[in-house]
Amino acid sequence: xxxxxxxxxxxxxxxxxxxxxxxxxxxxxxxxxxxxxxxxxxxxxxxxxxxxxxxxxxxxxxxxxxxxxxxxxxxxxxxxxxxxxxxxxxxxxxxxxxxxxxxxxxxxxxxxxxxxxxxxxxxxxxxxxxxxxxxxxxxxxxxxxxxxxxxxxxxxxxxxxxxxxxxxxxxxxxxxxxxxxxxxxxxxxxxxxxxxxxxxxxxxxxxxxxxxxxxxxxxxxxxxxxxxxxxxxxxxxxxxxxxxxxxxxxxxxxxxxxxxxxxxxxxxxxxxxxxxxxxxxxxxxxxxxxxxxxxxxxxxx
Length: 301
What we know:
By secondary structure, this protein is an alpha/beta fold. Helix content is 44%, strand content 15%. It has a four-stranded parallel beta sheet with strand order 1-10-7-6.
């Protein structure tokens, strides 16, 4: 078994575009801390984190010895009235990712650009969404990318029913996000075990399900839930991270595993080498133990 491909995500350093989320650490610091952990791959993060010019992004990452693997792209897919604009935006995003050196286009299916509250979709809207997955797959292919659908709180692919609808109605590949699947009520181990051939990327995220219940009951917003500790260091929450790793490695998965613990910095940023990077180090240690245990079990078998 080859060494697993493990990457970091800017949100693990508190990098988020949501107003009031907290200070955004500078990209050069995040890249130094990423490398200090022995990692050399990262996702694009929110607008304003990396430079706007994709060639500048590529040059910055090359100088740091880090590669870009993916970018999170919210798109409106259910509304036929905005089809052409959505495809234009997807084409531009894919070109930026290509120039930056990425491999994956991570799709989030939003109601609109403002992330308005989710609502039920009609059969016609679901059908149009499935057609748009195919259109974006074609755009990604032209740019040397793979589209992966990201189930996410607040989007149109959030709940277990949403996930099953897409699995049945489309052949789109998935970003298996352990945390958002668990919050939505779909067992991430089930997706790993039964649909491994549909998984193009894995986000490893652990969750406190007691806080998730409050989020699902609309007692908390996602930002409030984050401040309340919904996202935990890997191994400290209620998600079977080891089970997902075992199921995917058993299936022969050899893609990226992204450490993604949504966090926010409260008050002044901590000194470099402390704060979020300490939590990421703990999660990385847990994941490495999972892989070592999995490798040992396979040797015994």
